[in-house]
Amino acid sequence: MDDSEKGGSSENRRKRLLFRAQRRGFKEVDLIFGAYAEAALWGLNEAELDQFEALLVAPDQEVYAWLRGAEPVPAAYDNPVFAGLKAVCGRKDPKWNA
C-alpha cells in the first residue's frame, strides 16, 4: 500500500522520512541518513522509499556496524538504497549540513 492509499501524499511521506532520517537518536547515523535523504529522497521511487523506511526502523547500532563494514549487511537490507547510504560514508569532503 503506498502513501496515497493511506490518505497521504508521496511528498508528505518524503517529508516524514526526511525528519525521521535526521533524528534517529544516534548522531553518526543521523548525519549519514540525513545527508543521504537530503540528496536522494525526492528521486526515490516507491520501492526505494520502502527500502529506506525499512532501514530507518533497523536498530542504530546494527546499521552503523553495516555502514562501517564491521558486520555483513543482511540480504534484506543489501539494496541500492543501502549502497547510497554507504556512499555517503565514503565521501572525501562530506557536507553534513548542506
Description:
- The chain has a single domain, classed as Flavinator of succinate dehydrogenase (DNA polymerase, domain 1), CATH 1.10.150.
- It is 59% helix and 0% strand.
- The model has no long low-confidence stretch (mean pLDDT 88).
- By secondary structure, the protein is mostly helical.
- The chain contains 5 helices and no strands.
User: Radius of gyration over alpha carbons?
Assistant: 13 Å
Please count the beta strands (DSSP E, at least 2 residues each).
Answer: 0
Distance between the termini: 32 Å
Shape: globular
Helices and strands, in N-to-C order? Answer: HHHHH
- The fourth-level CATH homologous superfamily is Flavinator of succinate dehydrogenase
Main sheet specs: none
Mean pLDDT: 88
What is shown here, in short?
The chain is mainly alpha-helical.
List strands and helices in order, with pairings.
Layout: H1 10-22, H2 27-40, H3 46-57, H4 60-68, H5 80-89
Helix pairs in contact: 1-2, 1-3, 2-5
List keywords for this structure.
98 residues; mainly alpha; 0% strand
